[in-house]
Amino acid sequence: MTLKEPPAKRGENYPLLRKSLAILAASYLGPEGFGNEQTGLRAWPAPLLEAVRRGELEGIHWSLVSASDPSRFARMDLMCRLGLMAAELLDAGFDTMPGARRERVGVCVETFTGSLDTDVRFLQTPRPSLFAYTLPSTLVGEVCIRYRLKGPVLCLVSPDGAGNSALAEAADWLQQNDADACICLGCEALDRGIAEAAGLPDHLRLRDWHACAVLVGQQEGNPREKPLTAGSLAEICLRLSRIYAVGGR
Fold first, then answer.
1. Which residues contact 221 (CB under 8 A, 6 or more apart)?
2. What pLDDT is recorded for position 17?
3. Does any domain span residue 15?
4. Distance between CA 181 and CA 106 in Å, rounded?
5. What's the Cα-to-Cα distance from 188 to each of 10, 61, 110, 225, rounded to whole Å?
6. What's the whole-model pTM score?
7. Helix (H) or strand (E) holding 213
8. pLDDT tens digits, 91-111
9. Domain that holds residue 36
């Protein structure tokens, strides 16, 4: 899908939107920890801490963020596991949301590394169970299945994966009344060990990993609402998790 304007310019126009839009919830997973703007960032468990900081991500498990059934999670690739954990950390009440509202919630994913981790694994050991995950858009499907969402969907592979384009796309959907809310996901999920074993170039091998999500919607006076501003999606989520949680301003 071709964007109407360059992402940087569109990101600058958020304050000029015709509707009053807001971040309704935000979450983050990265080397710094995991959490949302209500819980704050929690430290990784001690057995995982050093591996996670090195970018070795296989030990990250669904049980860290949810007590719900992990059976689907076990078969997912790394990108889908991290992205779905970020969506779950939003704690946005999707499981109790009426069906009519879920039909109006969209999902937009933006990434730079995409499914590269899975692509490398598939080349090393071709398996049918991995093949379905060699497309970055599979994450969109997994999120929609988990929360039974039926709004517009899009996966963007961008030169920087900053998330500006995903936020701008979500704003367009809401402005055009195609959706009432949208999950914007940013995910860079490339295990450092896999990248090094494959001999990937430094700009991929040394890239920091993260998964982050915001739920964007119209302002309704909810105490969790925060301004929709331009900037890297990961920076927005990390900042909100640090500033606003537990006695923040």
1. none
2. 52
3. no
4. 6
5. 22, 17, 9, 26
6. 0.89
7. strand 210-218
8. 999 988 998 899 999 999 999
9. 20-243
* Amino acid code (one letter) for 137: S
Check which CATH number belongs to the domain holding 81 and give it: 3.40.47.10
In angstroms, the CA 93 to CA 232 distance is 25
Find the mean pLDDT for residues 174-185: 95
In the three-class reduction of DSSP (H, G, I as helix; E, B as strand; rest coil), residue 245 is classed as: coil
What is the identity of the amino acid at 213? A
Q: Let me know: does 40 contact 246? Beta carbons within 8 Å.
A: yes
Q: How many CA atoms lie within 13 A of 224 on its CB side?
A: 20
Instruction: With respect to residue 25, please indicate whether it lies within any of the assigned structural domains.
Output: yes
* Number of domains composing the chain: 1
Collapsing DSSP to helix, strand or coil, 40 comes out as strand
pLDDT exceeds cutoff 90 at 248: no
Sign (positive/negative) of CA torsion 97, 99, 101, 102?
A: positive
> Residue-wise over 206-245: b if at least 16 C-beta within 10 A, else e?
ebebbbbbbbbbeeeeeebbbebebebbbebbbbbbbebb
Judge whether residue 44 has pLDDT over 70: yes
108-138 pLDDT per residue, tens: 999 999 999 999 999 999 999 999 999 999 9
Distance CA(121)–CA(87), nearest Å, equals 25
Residue with tokens 């937009």: 108
- pLDDT for the residue 242: 81
